[in-house]
Amino acid sequence: MKTLNVITLALIIIGGINWLLVGLFQFDLVAALFGGTEAALSRAIYVLVGLSALWQILPWTRALSIDEPRAERAH
Fold first, then answer.
1. Which terminal residue of the chain has fewer beta carbons within 10 Å of its beta carbon, N or C?
2. Exposure of 8 by Cβ count < 10 A (0-12 exposed, 13-18 middle, 19+ buried)?
């Protein structure tokens, strides 16, 4: 499970950086590297990033249920 969490977090970070580039420079790095926004590989990466975000909801809700954010603010 930990490996899957690391992989999904890495994909979310990649997606976030891609959106930063889109927002600042109108440059889609995923599309540029993998053949455009309509290319099958680009679309697969977009889907994996989206699924990774959905997967990461689980640890986030668990952290909220054990009040982890309040514990981290105390540091």
1. C
2. buried
User: Where would I find the H helices in 1-75?
Assistant: 2-25, 29-34, 40-65, 68-73
Amino acid identity at 22: V
The whole-model pTM stands at 0.78
Give 30: exposed, middle or buried? Use CB within 10 Å, 0-12, 13-18, 19+: buried
Residues of the domain holding 29: 2-73
Q: Which residues contact 5 (CB under 8 A, 6 or more apart)?
A: 55, 56, 59
Q: What is the pLDDT of residues 45-64, one digit of tens each?
A: 999 999 999 999 988 888 77
Question: 18: buried, middle or exposed (CB in 10 Å: 19+, 13-18, 0-12)?
Answer: buried
